[in-house]
Amino acid sequence: MIEKHLGGCVCGAVRYQVTGSPVVGTVCHCKFCQRRLASAFAVLASFKHEAIEFLEGEVHEVEHRSDESGRWLRMRFCPKCGTTVAHTAEIRPGMMTIAAGTFDDPSWFTIDRHIWVQSKLPWVSIPAGVASYMQGYVPPAT
Ligand SMILES: [Zn+2]
Ligand SMILES: [Zn+2]
């Protein structure tokens, strides 16, 4: 059976469901993610577009260009509470990434890599054996 997982924004207006496991689980330490999520790093679960279904609530989209990568990201957020629940990115066509802190249970998937470690905060430790990259991870051309 393919597992489904639910999540949503902080006010509960936006609800989504994902089917199956993420293609990749990433922690991003870039300054852009630190600022856009007002946090130390971003926890990101990337899925094929069709694996994510928005069930309830209005979702607004705003485009930003990362000052570190120079590429666009389109943030999807709840207009009522401002929580960013997902984004699409220029670098990943056909994919959508869930801001994984918005899962009802954010512990269910694994982190495959840490990226933009060059701007990692000094009190954050990366577990041994997890791939890490000083800058972004560029997917191999297919
Ligand atoms: Zn909300
Ligand atoms: Zn980032």
Write up what this structure looks like.
- The protein is mainly beta.
- It has a single domain (4-120), classed as Metal Binding Protein, Guanine Nucleotide Exchange Factor, Chain A.
- Helix content is 4%, strand content 39%.
- It has one helix spanning 31-36, and strands at residues 4-8, 15-19, 24-28, 42-48, 52-56, 60-65, 72-77, 84-89, 95-99, 113-115, 131-132.
- 30% of the residues are buried.
- The structure holds zinc ion (ZN) (2 copies).
- Residues 9-11, 13-14, 78, 80-81, 83 line the site of one zinc ion (ZN).
Assess the beta-strand content as a share of residues: 35-45%
Largest sheet: 8 strands, mixed
**Strand-pairing-aware structural class:** mainly beta
Look at the structure and give the CATH class: Mainly Beta
CATH-assigned fold name: Metal Binding Protein, Guanine Nucleotide Exchange Factor, Chain A
As residue ranges, the low-confidence spans are: none
Quote the distance from N terminus to C terminus: 29 Å
Strand order in the sheet with the most strands: 6-7-8-9-4-3-10-11
- How many helices? The count is 1
- Percentage of residues in helical conformation: under 10%
Q: What would CATH call the architecture?
A: Beta Complex
- What's the structural domain tally? 1
Please outline what is shown here.
By secondary structure, the chain is mainly beta. It is built from one helix and eleven strands; from the N terminus they run E-E-E-H-E-E-E-E-E-E-E-E. The strands form two sheets. It has an eight-stranded mixed β-sheet, with no helix packed on it. It has a three-stranded antiparallel β-sheet with strand order 1-2-5, with no helix packed on it.
